[in-house]
Amino acid sequence: ADIGFTSSTVPRMIVGISIQSRVISYGACLTQMSLFVLFACMDNILLTVMAYDRFVAICHPLHYAVIMNPRRCKLLLLLSVFASLVDSQVHNLTTLQFTCFKEVQVASFFCDPPQILDLSCSGSLIKNIVTYVVGIFLGFFPLSGIIFSYYKIVSALLKIPLSGGRYKAFSTCGSHLSVVCLFYGTGIGTYLGSVASHSPRKGMVASLMYTVVT
């Protein structure tokens, strides 16, 4: 998922820099947006699944092998793929409904879905519905699950008498927590930021953070 997520934007950006061309065709833009949304959503859900995995490992260690059995892992993986495909197609179908655009310049280094939706000269209702509904279901709910998992993890760690034991248990969550903060902090800020206060430059920096750095 990470390889696909980065590969949907970075190679095209490097080619554009090397040949000094910022042009991308409409079809290529839609393809890039579809792949970007697909892998971004998959990353999003898998980060939530990983938080659940850490919660089970730390809070219910004796039941870990039973709860996180291969069948459940496969089910969670299939769920993430299915939800990602649905999200990708929703963005694609919404964009295909637009018959005219205010301009042809995207204020980002790739075909970022919010930027593409903002280019439409149609009414803002459908754009806002897609942006906020997708943001709630694939942003707010997964993030709430991660926060709840870490709340339970911290509560369990506080019951461990030795500080060394707490550190050892929580150290397994360090890299995951770092990526979660970076991915969700910049991603949700880009998607749910107010249009009135949105700065294209800040948007590009935020997009670079969650598409490349993570």
Automatic annotation (TrEMBL):
PROSITE patterns: G_PROTEIN_RECEP_F1_1 (PS00237), G_PROTEIN_RECEP_F1_2 (PS50262). It is found in: Cell membrane. The chain crosses the membrane at residues 129-151. It is a multi-pass membrane protein. Gene3D superfamilies: Rhodopsin 7-helix transmembrane proteins. Pfam families: 7tm_4. Keywords: Cell membrane, G-protein coupled receptor, Membrane, Receptor, Transducer, Transmembrane, Transmembrane helix. SUPFAM superfamilies: Family A G protein-coupled receptor-like (SSF81321). The keyword Nucleotide-binding does not apply. One of its GO terms (molecular function) is olfactory receptor activity. Residues 1-214 form the G-protein coupled receptors family 1 profile domain. InterPro entries: GPCR_Rhodpsn, GPCR_Rhodpsn_7TM, Olfact_rcpt. GO terms for cellular component: plasma membrane. The keyword Hydrolase does not apply. Possible taste receptor. This is Olfactory receptor family 7. It comes from Fukomys mechowii. The gene is OR7.
